[in-house]
Amino acid sequence: MDKATRAVIQKATENARSCLETEFREQLDGRYDIRAGRPLPAEPGAHLDADQRRIHSQLVATLEHLRLRGANEQDAVDTYVREAAFTTLNRLAALKMLEARALVKPCVSNGPASTGFKEFSGLAPGLQELPDKGYRLYLECLFDEIAVEVKVLFDRRDPAALLWPRDAALAELLAILNRPELAIAWAEDETIGWIYQYFNSSAEREAMRKQSSVPRNSRELAVRNQFFTPRYVVEFLTDNTLGRTWYEMRAGQTRLTDQCQSLVHEPDERFDPP
User: Fold this and answer.
1) What pTM, to 2 d.p., does this model score?
2) What distance in Å separates the CA atoms of residue 59 and residue 36, rounded to the nearest whole number?
């Protein structure tokens, strides 16, 4: 993947993170009365419906768990918002990549106008009565289906999936993911890896290093040292470890000499007899 494409992915990732974190903070504050740096509300507000009261209880339990692990009120909210944004972004990015490989019908590329959602709506006309015409339900059905094989990312029981972007934020997020200059990236296997890396900005990494010369917690350890490994590096390492071992075991008589482009070998190499 060239530098220009990586730059586009980085910009989109940073924009998407900002969009989602702003949205989820506003939801925590305005809907659930959960504010960074302040004690958690003991009871859900009277303005919440039954489903929102359930979500409120789960949010409080999740934040209390973070508190028990050593986070203060501010850090607990910050951590939750970051993880919720990370999970939502990566799920929709994964759907874009599945679309590019024709493994799912178009579901994100045109938002609610996607052909996959249109077919889904045709099977359940009652969805038109929902505020978003059932688009969220459609995406969650896709998550549940994919979670059978990729549970670690798509499991909706994950506390990081308690919040969902409202209409305006979802439209903004989809617009970011569907930028024309980003279209080429979705067919690339490396894209999801670069999104993982760019979610933590270099400015954030530098700020951590200025505050402490060594990582102070598990997140800082990951942010400081977690870098995506490009395909060519993986291929070189694999070709010259496993590939090289097999090459020597077969005394050079193997198809790997043609298949492993990074395998270091000489045409006239000699091998000791077994």
Assistant:
1) 0.82
2) 13
